[in-house]
Design goal:
The chain is 27% helix and 30% strand. The chain is an alpha+beta fold. It folds into three domains: 2-102, no CATH class; 111-236 and 271-298, Sandwich (Jelly Rolls), CATH 2.60.120; 319-458 and 493-507, Jelly Rolls. It is globular, with a radius of gyration of 28 Å. It binds 2-acetamido-2-deoxy-beta-D-glucopyranose and copper (II) ion. The site of 2-acetamido-2-deoxy-beta-D-glucopyranose has 4 residues, from loops.
Length: 510
């Protein structure tokens, strides 16, 4: 009886799915899912659990269909142009790549972040360790990336990290106060400011903006364990737990020369978490210099008073963009602009890609790029030999003909605010903005010293430097033909994007 019932249900579910799948427009994804799940809710004689199972099946079914659709689009997307149709083997590889889309080791989304602090006034999120995602990211395993988001007029409790930190302010107006030796430095920051907070520096932060949330992206390099860091809170109380509470009462009494009860009052209270509300008055007091031994440097770059400490911020947007046209702007800061980046050997860049435009396919000679999408939508594509070779070694049980040259997998990801993607050195990459909004990407380029960006197309592309004989030999066609193609795109670094984007609906805008 029981079994028969279940069988009936299975049959029923399948017939529902079948009915739904026939004649429904693929593009109407969400309505289709809704309809399928709606029917689950009205399954006769099904209990709650069975309805849930039914809904799950709907979900899986739609997902699989989306996947198939994606493959179909990949097939139609000009592969024959690149000759895949002439090499069935390679073409099938391409299809498998698309299936692996969800396991793209270079691409991170919301669920890959861990929320390490969350209060009603803000949160800190840190991306999982790079090597947890894939061994291919070993080269940047000593770095972590994350973000701090807080409300207007909020306060982040004093703490230090066992990690070097480079902050980039994208939104809000923070004042970051650091204690260095015998003095305190407070920096009033704004959009575009970069500030390094050296490892172990006691620091607290306010958002002095009354209306706008604070949004800071952080690159961290742990100094004690290679890929792990901790925060140490120096305030009083519990939540956040004060570092003082770890010591035994006798030791604290001696260290403070104070009584047990007064220490209990200071360190015993429950707090509201490490990100809290501050009053307007408190914010005002902390946003201004109040004289005395304090120093406030609202100036950018080197502060005029002292040449010994160069700890102030650098504003990326006050510098002239290194690439600029109607399709986008690229701002870059290296250690010549901001000395503090030298020790970490990183460069910071910000690409503002105009809606409907794209970045030239290019690669970095030495740097691996950790890119954080700050705003907009679009996608990136990258050529990766590592994934392609993993693919073929999995496919070939016994060693077959070893091809004499590598093949490259198309690695791709849909970009939107909060996604992160990694571009290893030497890997050609491009990013394309959707037609709806500018795509704004912050990049930390690790291993920056002597790095050069090498454009593959557009003005000053690499091939235009070749001798004519080299061009002919490399491409196997007359040099005129090579030049004709490579000279067509006259823009530099930012171009008009592909124009079939709308129909493609490649970026799943939620
Ligand atoms: C990026 O470009 C858009 C459009 O020109 C502009 O509104 C936006 O402020 C720019 N972003 C930054 C950070 O400059
Ligand atoms: Cu690779």
């Amino acid at each position: 009886m029981e079994i028969k019932n279940k069988l009936c249900l299975v049959v029923l579910v399948f017939s529902v799915l079948l009915a739904v799948s026939s004649g429904v427009d693929y593009k109407e994804k969400d309505p289709e899912l809704r309809q399928c799940q709606h029917q689950c809710q009205h399954l006769r004689g099904a209990d709650e659990q069975q309805k849930q199972i039914c809904e799950q099946r709907c979900d899986d079914y739609i997902k699989q269909k989306k996947q198939e659709e994606k493959q179909r689009r990949g097939e139609g997307g000009g592969t024959s142009f690149y000759g895949y149709d002439e090499d069935q083997e390679q073409y099938q590889g391409q299809q498998r790549q698309q299936q692996q889309y969800d396991q793209n080791p270079y691409f991170f989304e919301d669920q890959d972040f861990e929320t390490i602090v969350e209060t009603d006034q803000g949160r800190v999120q840190i991306l999982q360790k790079f090597t947890e995602k894939s061994d291919l990211l070993r080269g940047i395993q000593n770095f972590r990336i994350g973000s701090l988001i807080t409300n207007p007029h909020s306060f982040v409790a004093p703490h230090h990290l066992d990690a070097d930190c480079v902050c980039f302010v994208f939104q809000g107006r923070p004042t970051i106060s650091m204690v260095r030796g015998e003095k305190r430095e407070s920096h009033n920051l704004e959009r575009g400011d970069i500030l390094r907070v050296p490892a172990g520096t006691p620091v607290y932060i306010i958002n002095r903006d009354e209306n706008e949330k604070l949004f800071i992206v952080k690159l961290l390099r742990p100094v004690s364990l290679p890929d792990q860091f901790e925060a140490f809170f120096g305030g009083g109380g519990e939540n956040p737990e004060s570092i003082f509470r770890a010591f035994s009462p006798e030791v604290l009494q001696a260290a403070f020369k104070a009584g047990r009860d007064e220490l209990q009052r200071l360190f015993g209270q429950q707090r509201q978490g490490s990100i809290m509300k501050a009053s307007r008055e408190q914010i005002q007091k902390m946003s201004h210099s109040s004289g005395g031994a304090e120093k406030i440097w609202p100036f950018h770059g080197d502060e005029p008073f002292s040449t010994s400490t160069k700890s102030g911020p650098f504003n990326l947007f006050k510098k002239r963009p290194s690439q600029s046209n109607q399709h986008g702007h690229l701002f870059e800061a290296d250690f010549n602009d901001y000395k503090q980046l030298e020790e970490l050997d990183i460069q910071i860049s910000f690409a503002n890609i105009t809606r409907g435009s794209m970045v030239a396919p290019h690669f970095n000679s030495k740097s691996t790029k950790i890119s954080f999408v700050l705003d907009g939508e679009g996608f990136f594509e990258m050529a990766c030999p590592h994934l392609a070779s993993q693919e073929s070694s999995q496919r070939q049980q016994q060693p077959q003909r070893r091809s004499s040259s590598p093949s490259y997998q198309n690695v791709r990801g849909d970009l939107r605010r909060g996604t992160v993607f990694i571009v290893p050195a030497g890997h050609p990459v491009t990013a394309i903005a959707s037609r709806n909004s500018n795509l704004q990407i912050l990049c930390f380029e690790v291993n920056a010293k002597d790095n050069v960006k090498i454009p593959l197309t557009g003005k000053s592309n690499v091939v235009s430097q070749f001798e004519r004989e080299a061009k002919e030999l490399a491409f196997g066609v007359p040099v005129k033909e090579v030049d004709r193609i490579f000279n067509k795109q006259q823009d530099q670094f930012f171009f008009e994007g592909p124009n079939n984007q709308q129909q493609g609906r490649m970026w799943s805008v939620v």
